[in-house]
From TrEMBL:
Keywords: Isomerase. It comes from the Bacteria. This is Ribose-5-phosphate isomerase. It holds the Pfam family LacAB_rpiB. The keyword Isomerase applies.
Length: 156
């Protein structure tokens, strides 16, 4: 599974500190930036990470910002993306199993170096459930994207 990584300046150091972990675990990652602690805007990075996932070159993405919140808000603006802030292991796997989350967002100022590896492991190992209610709900999320986009178009 190929993983798209991204961070803003607040998440940069945690992201980089995890590169040996990804290598040790045999996970193939692409880092879509940022590449230093110089301030950047998380929406710009979110677009790059999410494009990798949306276009299918990467199965899932992981984003790091200060709280994870900004990254999640930005990612959830992008059709086909379901992003969640995960700071506990249960949410990190259940968000995939139930909600087919494809971008996990982590607050680098919130979690420590041990927990973050467990979060990533839980997120990457999880698979979307084949049970009908979960599929139906995710389909409804997709329909919502279309419905609101159509409304905007019709206004224009
Ligand atoms: O470095 P500053 O701009 O203070 O804070 C940026 C962080 O604040 C939140 O929007 C995000 O979590 C982002 O990482």
């Amino acid at each position: 599974m190929k993983i798209a990584l991204g961070s803003d300046h607040c998440g940069y150091e945690l992201k980089v500190s995890l590169l040996p972990y990804f290598e040790r675990m045999g996970y193939e990652v692409s880092d879509f930036g940022c590449h230093s602690t110089e301030p950047v805007d998380f929406p710009d990075i979110a677009q790059q990470v999410c494009d990798g996932v949306r276009k299918g070159s990467h199965k899932r993405g992981i984003m790091f910002c200060g709280t994870g919140v900004g990254a999640a808000i930005a990612a959830n603006k992008i059709p086909g993306i379901r992003a969640a802030v995960c700071h506990d292991v249960h949410s990190a796997h259940q968000c995939v199993e139930h909600d087919d989350v494809n971008i996990m967002c982590i607050g680098a100022k919130i979690v420590g170096p041990w927990l973050v590896e467990d979060l990533i492991q839980a997120f990457i190992s999880a698979t979307f459930s084949s049970e009908k209610p979960f599929r139906r709900r995710v389909k409804k999320l997709h329909e919502m994207e279309i419905q609101y986009a159509m409304e905007l178009m019709n206004k224009g």
